[in-house]
Amino acid sequence: MAATLWGVEEAEAANRLELLCNDALLLPSPPIQVGKRTWPAYHLDQLLHDVARRLLTTNQTTGLGIPLAKGHAELLKRYRVRTQSKLWHTLADDGYIHARLTWHLKQAGWGDEIHKLLREEISPGCNGWHEACKRLGQTAIVVADVALAWQLAEDLFEDDPLRAIALQCRYALIVSTLNSLSADLPPPLLGALLQKYVRVPKQGLAHALQSSNPETKAILLTEISDYSPQNLKEEALQKALAATKVIQYEQDRLNALKSLVLKLPPSLLPEALAIARAMPSGITRVEALKSLAPKLPPNLLLEALTIAKAFSHRNSEYCRALALSAVVDFLPEKLKAEVLEDALNAAKAIPSKEFRDNVYRAGALTAVADKLPEELQAEVLEDILTAARAIEEDWCRAIALSDLADKLPEKLQAEVLPEALAAARASEEDWSQAIALSVLAPKLPPDLLPEALAAARDIQSESDRATALIALASKLPEVIPEAFAATRAIQSDHARASALSALAPKLPPDLLPEALVTARGIRFERDRASALIALGSQMSKMQTGELLPLWQNTLHSLSFQPHRDFVPNLLALASVICALGGRAAVAEVVIALQDVGRWWP
């Protein structure tokens, strides 16, 4: 550093420093290692430091005639001469500058240079400053520099809201990435943010293909296909389908396939149907067929029908009834009657010996009943009602009766709903009573709501009581304050965050400040962030002066999450980003995601 400041050779600087130390103007420090060479190090005595600082910060008449900020700037100019193409990350190690560069930049008033420093890039796609510090074994420098840059970005809001919000998101993304350094990009790739803001470049497809996780790759490619030109769209979907096929966990494979189905061109539907056929579990195979059936051409519908008839494992009648019901609407007219009869026979063949059998029987009969002509429904509905009433578990019986109620004649419906409510109230466990009341609540007529509310209030567990009250709040808005009070009383951070998230869309403006206080009081970062995210749409309606500090706290909380979780949660705050920085800020966030994904793939 001394050689750079004085503009002399290193040996000359070393001699001068030694002389100053001999004259007691400097004190010795532990030696430093620069490359393979060890150099003596020195520091100012505190008294001399204070005198020098005073002389640099006083007026020019009695001081040294150079402001402190200008002194920092002069040093930086001399270091800049030693860079390549004026890129700070190209500075050679001198045992000093890497750890103190951003401090000097801030003191010189060169805040923009700090933001530029953290965006410097080395081909082929590495962050220059991170790589420079990594070579020195001092990546902690980057963490400290990002923290400083983040603070500068927050201070920038009054003068340039758009840039301030974009930079804050960028630095939160970097912090999350450095905390986890996961091997793959997060699945969403800000798909919803890409819409209306930016176009996905061709390299986005190549970047998505680099992911080693098939599930991540499938979801990334599915998202990208929405924003790709036609020539890239089919390629993205084909690659997404190939990735879906090799996803290890069946439920994840099903979810990926369902996301793809509506976007697939006809040429890829046979492969999608093959993936559905290969699902080991009957239930997931049914769900896959249900999602595919509306898209299939006649020849593939016949193949889907063959798959639907071919269940041969435990619960095969239940799965066959559901699968046939799923495809029947899309079959040629001449086949519909026969297929419906097969589905009905399969549902009726489900035994009623055990509790689970009755649940399956009621569910299968309900699925078939939806497809039957009106003249045949009455008989089937009677069978369904018998099966539902035979379910021994009170809460399961309540749910089955609730599911059936919409399909019954008005007179019978008036009989079944009180019966379902009585079954819900008879459930002995708080959790099961809360689930049953939650399912039943949207279907209850006004005259049954007071009884349901009394049942909810009788639940002892704060968490389960909150669940039931929140479900009833859609029909009884006056219950919202009570539901909120129950939510605040929940001891578990995770349960409190879940309840607050469910309640968020229903909260009136006067309860929002308290809800935000409750969310901020959740101790665990992930739970706190999920609650704050759920409140995001409400937050975006606040005045900027109230919203800004809350946004900053939320973003800091989010940055502690793993990279994989951080990005979709940032996506959920798009409305807040727009409220503070406008749509252009969202576009900048997308660019930040692409940059960080390139630097730390």
In a few lines, what is going on in this structure?
This protein has 601 residues and is mostly helical. Helices cover 67% and strands 3% of the residues. Helix 16 runs parallel beside helix 18 and helix 18 packs antiparallel against helix 19.
Question: Can you tell me about this structure?
Answer:
The structure is a single chain. With 601 residues, the chain is mainly alpha-helical. The chain has 35 helices and 4 strands. It has helices at 2-6, 10-22, 46-57, 68-80, 97-107, 111-117, 128-135, 140-155, 161-180, 191-194, 202-209, 214-225, 230-245, 250-261, 269-277, 282-292, 298-309, 316-327, 333-348, 355-369, 374-389, 394-405, 410-426, 430-440, 449-458, 462-473, 480-488, 493-503, 512-520, 525-534, 536-539, 544-558, 563-572, 574-581, 583-599, and strands at 27-34, 37-43, 121-122, 126-127. The strands form 2 sheets. The chain has a two-stranded antiparallel ribbon. Helix 22 runs parallel beside helix 24 (430-440) and helix 26 runs parallel beside helix 28 (493-503). It is elongated and about 105 Å long. It starts with a helix and ends with a helix. Residues 182-201 have low confidence and may be disordered.
Total number of helices: 35
Residue runs with pLDDT of under 50 for 5 or more positions = 182-201
Overall pLDDT metric: 85
Main beta sheet: 2 strands, antiparallel
Distance between the termini: 34 Å
Morphology call: elongated
Q: Helicity level, as a percent range?
A: 55-70%
Structural class, from helix and strand content? mainly alpha
Radius of gyration from CA coordinates: 33 Å
Numbering strands along the chain, what is their spatial order in the largest sheet? Answer: 1-2
Count of individual beta strands: 4
Percent in strands: under 5%
